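Suppose a classmate hands you a notebook page containing two proteins, each written out with its sequence and a corresponding row of structure tokens. How would you begin to make sense of it? This section walks through that situation. The first entry is reproduced here exactly as it would appear on such a page.
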Amino acid sequence: MAGMRFTIRSEADLIKAINKYGFLPFFRNSIEGFSIEEHIAPEHWYYSDSAQWDAWDWKGPVIQKTGCAYGKFFEHKAVYISRDWFPDFANYRRDGYDFDARYDEGLAKHTDKVLYDLLDSHAPVISKELKQLGDYRKGGNKGFDTSITRLQEQCYVITSNFIYMTDKHGQHYGWGVAEYSTPEKIYGSRLYR
């Protein structure tokens, strides 16, 4: 994207870019040059020599430090949206509806309503626990990924943090697991106009 000339070499650089541009996709997308992936120093993207994955490790701390929204908001892909931009973006995507009104008008699927209500009553909740609570498993309920993505795209659900699992010795392992919440629980209902 013309005019976007920067390189992300640190968590602070990432925060600066999110605050400057307001809306910053994590992965390459249909707009060339409009992603973290295209602007991050290679050693901070996938650095297999040291098993370092900085861009992924920074997600939770960036969300916590900035209060930005993170979720699948653009082309089914992850995006950071600054706290300043998110209210307007959410109002646009929601088209004036809170989730219950959207459902009552027949504009939301029943499967989305079931997942939204479950998430809302337990938020913040990590995806693993949410799937267990909703019996999303082989032989159980289906459609978790589709519904959670749709709820994020409509700005009813955001990723509020990434939580690392710990082993019996208290050591972190694996990838950070998404913790979901509603924007209202994170920002309060007065955030929306």
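The notebook's second entry, a different protein, reads as follows.
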Amino acid sequence: MFTGIIQGQGEITSLRKNGTECRLAIRPLFTLTDVIDGESIAVNGACLSVESHSREGFTAYASAETLARTTLGTLLNGDLVNLERALALGDRLGGHLVSGHVDCLATVREVRPSGQSVCCRLEFPASLGPEVIAKGSVALDGISLTVNDCGPDFLEVNIIPDTQKRTTMRLWRPGTRVNMETDLIGKYVRSLLGPWSGLSGKDAGNDAATRTGAGLSRELLLRNGFI
């Protein structure tokens, strides 16, 4: 579990492909102490396990599933990535609950100045639209951000100067693809409401109410004693 508060950036120093999988070597560009083999570190928002570590950095293995769902498969030697260690119980939750399980790739469509900040507009698959709300939270390349505005397939976020300095967001340009994870609580709410609203996630088809096209209606509430 993570919070989306990026601790620093890392540099990709090696990429060793093994079929559809890959082993990454990452050199942190900040002080990263007491690393333990097996611990979880979010790399651009994707949760990876440390295989080995040294003073120079650490290695992690990305499976075919991870490479298919994230931008990690497009990284090159010398690229920068956002790094965050897993949340420890008792730490401040400065961002929001982030699982490190990327939902989709979002594409940057617009980057425009807004005072000292930068406003970015991104597009994402419309199937995830119900999980994105204005003033809610989203993780983009592992960074916890507040949604300023959104629609069925787009969202806008404001990037303050400190976030630009600490993360790879300063490198975003129209066409840049980033890892996106929607709000964890929103996913559970959507799943729980799925049988009544027809707006559940990928497994919605398993619900009888969804299969029959039933939704939340006055008749349904009457039949179940709510009114």
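A careful reader of the second entry would note: The chain is about 15% helix and 35% strand.
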